[in-house]
Specification:
This protein is mostly helical and about 190 residues long. The chain folds into 3 domains: about 45 residues, no CATH class; about 40 residues, no CATH class; about 70 residues, no CATH class. It is about 50% helix and about 5% strand. The chain contains 7 helices and 2 strands. The protein has a two-stranded antiparallel ribbon. Helix 1 crosses helix 3 and helix 5 packs antiparallel against helix 6. The protein starts with 12 loop residues before the first helix and ends in a 14-residue tail after the last helix. About 0% of the residues are buried.
């Protein structure tokens, strides 16, 4: 009994044939093995089958490519790359915690560097607003903060279908207030919706 001929990689034979047609149209140069297009084409069917079989079974490793020195015309006229201006800059953000020597670059007078966290700045502004208006207009401030909680409720019920009933939403809201009482700055003042 023979095993079914199932390959780990599903590569159509037509794809290999199209790749061959593109190489032939480009008049590809001989590789490291020295085999040119004419010698490959002499036994084309067998060579393409070998490539397809090895690729679809995962055992095809292309031979190394020959290195060719490309002349640099800018060196002839005295142009060089400035080492200070061509350094790698580490773009640090909330997900990248590592440190690096170069964390900013200047291009055409504008300095690119990591942004400050947007939420912390907004939170500071909101805290100052609550502290200022809370001293003088406490009753107005409470109604405004209840409105913020109402918008949070509306967002949560739109995002999570299971919270659309009042009973489930109330249970979730109370649990959230117990788990993370400082999640929002305005919860210090108003916790109802």
């Amino acid at each position: 009994m023979t095993k079914p001929d199932v390959k780990p990689f599903a590569i159509p034979k037509l794809l290999v044939w199209e790749a061959w047609r593109q190489v032939k149209a480009n008049k590809g140069a001989p590789g490291v093995d020295g085999q040119d297009l004419d010698s490959f084409e002499a036994d084309l069917r067998d060579n393409l089958y070998k490539i397809w079989n090895r690729m679809s079974s995962g055992t095809y490793f292309p031979p190394p490519v020959r290195a060719v020195e490309i002349p640099k015309p800018h060196a002839e006229v005295g142009l060089t790359v400035h080492p200070e201006k061509t350094r790698i800059v580490y773009c640090k953000d909330g997900k990248r915690r590592g440190d690096h020597e170069h964390i900013s670059l200047t291009f055409l007078g504008y300095t690119f560097r990591a942004r400050k966290a947007i939420n912390s700045k907004t939170g500071e502004t909101f805290t100052r607003t609550i502290n200022y208006y809370g001293r003088f207009y406490r009753s107005e401030m409470v109604s405004l903060l209840r409105r913020v909680n109402f918008y949070l409720k509306r967002w949560a019920t739109a995002k999570y279908k299971r919270l659309r009933t009042f009973k489930r939403f109330k249970r979730w809201w109370d649990g959230l207030l117990q788990r993370a009482p400082g999640l929002f700055i305005h919860w210090r003042t108003v916790r109802t919706y």
